[in-house]
Design goal:
This protein is mainly beta. It has no helices and 9 strands. The two termini are about 20 Å apart.
């Protein structure tokens, strides 16, 4: 498990939301002074596939999900306080069984 941050200081937040899958996945982009980028988002119940350009780390802040990385058959469960890494130029399928899954996505 990772120690998830509860806030970020000294950042720029894009107010325009990134909206996917008819509003079932929504995030906001956060830019840091060192030029790194994260997104903070919500995933509503359902199953969604995302592609990646760069490697990503998905940290689960609240709720739970199951994830299958592209090229793998293993389905893994993730709860609040856990994370998974996704290689660049790859993808993953994330499923939220009920409620809302909150996440921080870091671009590595």
């Amino acid at each position: 498990m990772s120690a998830l941050p509860t806030q970020f200081s000294g950042v720029t937040v894009h107010t325009k939301a990134n909206v996917y899958f008819d509003g079932k996945v929504v995030s906001h982009t956060v830019l840091f002074a060192d030029n790194s980028k994260k997104t903070l988002g919500l995933i509503y119940a359902g199953s969604y596939h995302f592609g990646t350009g760069a490697p990503e780390r998905m940290e689960i802040v609240a709720g739970a999900c199951t994830v299958t990385l592209d090229g793998q058959t293993a389905v893994k469960d993730y709860a609040a306080g856990t994370y998974f890494d996704v290689p660049g130029k790859s993808g993953f399928t994330i499923e939220v069984g009920g409620g809302i899954c909150e996440y921080i996505c870091s671009f590595l």
